[in-house]
Write a structure and sequence with these properties.
Belongs to the ABC transporter superfamily. It comes from Pseudoduganella violacea. The protein has 307 residues and is an alpha/beta fold. It folds into 2 domains: 217 residues, P-loop containing nucleotide triphosphate hydrolases (Rossmann fold, 3-Layer(aba) Sandwich); 63 residues, Alpha-Beta Plaits (2-Layer Sandwich), CATH 3.30.70.100. Helices cover 33% and strands 28% of the residues. The protein is globular, with a radius of gyration of 24 Å. The protein binds adenosine-5'-triphosphate.
Length: 307
Amino acid sequence: MTYPPIELKSVSKQFGALQALKEVSLNVNKGEMVGLIGHNGAGKSTLFKLMLGLIPASSGSIRVHGADTSGPGFRQARRRIGYLPESFVTYDNLSGLEVLQLFADLKKVPRSACAGTLELVGLQHAAGRRVGTYSKGMRQRLGFAQALLGEPDLLFLDEPTNGLDPEGIADFYATLRKVKARGATIVITSHILAEIQQRVDRLFIMKSGQLAAQGTLDELRAGMSLPLLVEAAMADQEAAGAGLQTLQGLPGVKASAEGGKLTVSCERERKMAVLSALSATALDIVIHEPTLEELFLGYGGAHVRAH
Ligand SMILES: Nc1ncnc2c1ncn2[C@@H]1O[C@H](COP(=O)(O)OP(=O)(O)OP(=O)(O)O)[C@@H](O)[C@H]1O
C-alpha cells in the first residue's frame, strides 16, 4: 500500500504555557512541491521539527510515508527524508567534500555519492576548499547538498534561499525542479513570497500556530476575491479623461487618471467590462493579479519580515 508522504491530523504543540501549534490538519501528496508561509513565530519551524520526528506533538497524529512519527516504524521512513534547517551550521576546518562525506556516513549513504551531489549544487570547484573560506551563499549550497544526499524522496527545506544571490536562487530552483522530476515531494518555507508564489504547486498559510488557508495560488485568490489592478496607457490626457468618465459609470470599479495613464481597481467579475470599456481607446493594458503578499495579509497574516 502506498501512503501520502505527509498526513497531519489535529496536531497541536505546547511549549510550557505557549501554544505554538493549534489543531493543524494537512496532507501533502506524492510529487508535490508545497510552500509553508507565515509570519515570524507562526509555527513553521516547529511544524518541520514535528514532521521530522525531532520533537513530539502534544496531541494529534503525524504520519510520514504512513509511519507515525512517534512510533517504531519511523526510523525507516526517516531515511527517505532530507532536511535543510533554517541555520545550517557546519565545520569550518573541513573541506566541503569532507563535510559532505561526514553527513554521508551519518546517513549511511556511500561516500561515492558526494562528488555528484556537490556538482548538483554547483560547488564542485570548491570541493577541496576549507568551509571557513566559503561565502554565505556557498555554505547554504553545502547545506542544500547534505539535504540532497542519498536522493531522499521527501525534502524539508527551511528558508533554503537565505543568503543566496539572484543567480544562486535561480540555480537552487533549477535543482529543485530536477529533484521534483524524479518524483520527490518537497516542503519549503520562505519569507520571500514573490519568490515562491509561482514556483510551488500549493501553499499553506500559517497564522499564530493555525493553518489559516491552503490551496493553489488561484484557489487562494478565488477564496479571498481581492480586487484586480488594471493599468491602461492612453494616447493622451484627453483620452484618459474620457476613459475615466466611462469607467466611473461601472459598478464595483474605482479608477483614477494621471497624465495619459489610467489606474483601475475592480472586482474580478468586472474585469471584462473594464477591458471592453477601454479596448477601443487604450494603447496598452496590463492586468495585475493580487500578489501572494496581498493574499497573505488578506488571510490575516502579519507583514512578513525578511530575516
Ligand atoms: N523549544 C521551544 N521552547 C519554547 N518556545 C518555542 C520553542 N520553539 C519554538 N517556540 C515558540 O513557538 C512559536 C513558533 O515558533 P517557530 O520557530 O515554529 O516559528 P516560525 O514560524 O518558524 O518563525 P520564524 O519565521 O521566525 O522562523 C514561537 O512563539 C516560538 O517562540
